[in-house]
């Protein structure tokens, strides 16, 4: 789905004055604003916006939580898009490859994707970036902003992988990032659903007291075709279902292991 008022293919136009950094509140102008990727460029993000973060906050997040995300997931993007050959036994490994191999080994051992707090805070920032670039009200963002800053010890995020439901159709060799926003005035729920590489599927709850207009919008980036196809998301969780995720999140995480194996298989196939 198209982003509002594109300046160029991957940029979003804003007025140079009257916008504030959503983290520190400084007024964004030509001296203070920065080009913030909606999805980090380390995992294939291309779209940027100037109405999100000031230079200082952008650099701080980049050195900290975004770096933690990149250390986990950048290798997948590199292997998918450059067709970099797999390491042969005995090949020298640099630090990045060691981190990547350790990450995969840990997942295979525990069937768990749990990363550091900064890892999940960076994913939350992706969801907030998308929400704000769509022009929606900032009044519902305090909980997720607090979590991104590290002020909130209780993360408003949960794994989501329903056993008998299909959230969307996935092409045979598709590998994509998906962002979906859902807001319902009747239920009071406002949340984001995100898939990274179609194997890190999470829901971030913004608020359970939403009173704005209904929201149902999706963005998809296919990493192999380098396209932004339309994607229909069949997701309309009720208030009760969202509240149950606190209990079922761990079970949901285990169900994400097959999509992880699928990603590894696609990478192997592309290397031959």
Protein model, in words:
The structure is a single chain. By secondary structure, the protein is α+β, with helices and mostly antiparallel strands. It folds into 2 domains: 58 residues, no CATH class; 149 residues, no CATH class. The strands form 4 sheets. A 5-stranded antiparallel sheet has the order 7-10-9-8-11. Strands 1-2 form a two-stranded antiparallel ribbon. The chain has a two-stranded antiparallel sheet with strand order 3-4. Strand 1 and strand 2 form a beta hairpin. Helix 2 crosses helix 4 and helix 4 runs antiparallel to helix 5. The chain is globular and about 50 Å long. The N terminus is likely disordered.
Brief summary of the model shown:
With 272 residues, this protein is an alpha+beta fold. It has helices at 55-63, 65-82, 95-110, 117-133, 142-149, 239-254, 257-270, and strands spanning 6-8, 11-12, 19-20, 27-28, 36-37, 48-49, 157-159, 176-184, 189-196, 200-207, 215-222.
Strand content: 15-25%
* N-C termini distance: 33 Å
Chain-averaged pLDDT: 86
* Helicity range: 25-40%
Number of beta-strand segments: 11
Radius of gyration: 18 Å
Molecular shape: globular
Largest sheet: 5 strands, antiparallel
Total individual domains: 2
Category from helices, strands and their pairing? alpha+beta
Following the backbone from N to C, one meets helices and strands in this order, namely EEEEEEHHHHHEEEEEHH
Number of helices: 7
- Poorly predicted segments: 1-18, 87-92
């Amino acid at each position: 789905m198209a982003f509002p008022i594109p300046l160029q293919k991957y940029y979003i136009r804003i007025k140079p004055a009257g916008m504030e950094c959503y983290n520190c509140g400084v007024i964004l102008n030509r001296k203070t604003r920065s080009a913030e990727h909606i999805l980090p460029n380390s995992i294939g993000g291309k779209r940027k916006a100037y109405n999100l973060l000031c230079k200082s906050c952008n650099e701080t997040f980049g050195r900290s939580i975004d770096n933690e995300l990149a250390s986990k997931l950048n290798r997948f993007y590199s292997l998918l898009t450059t067709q970099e050959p797999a390491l042969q036994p005995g090949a020298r490994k640099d630090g990045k490859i060691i981190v990547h191999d350790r990450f995969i080994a840990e997942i295979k051992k525990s069937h768990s994707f749990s990363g550091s707090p900064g890892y999940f805070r960076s994913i939350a920032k992706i969801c907030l970036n998308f929400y704000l670039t769509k022009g929606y009200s900032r009044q519902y963002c305090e909980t997720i902003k607090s979590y991104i800053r590290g002020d909130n010890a209780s993360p408003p995020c949960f794994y989501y992988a329903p056993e008998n439901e299909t959230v969307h159709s996935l092409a045979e060799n598709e590998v994509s990032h998906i962002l979906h926003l859902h807001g319902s005035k009747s239920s009071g729920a406002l949340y984001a659903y995100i898939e990274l590489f179609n194997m890190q599927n999470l829901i971030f709850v913004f608020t359970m007291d939403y009173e704005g207009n209904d929201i149902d919008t999706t963005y998809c980036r296919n990493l192999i075709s380098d396209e932004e196809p339309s994607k229909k998301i069949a997701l309309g969780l009720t208030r009760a279902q969202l509240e149950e995720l606190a209990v079922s999140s761990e079970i949901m995480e285990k169900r994400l292991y097959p999509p992880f194996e699928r990603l590894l298989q696609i990478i192997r196939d592309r290397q031959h």
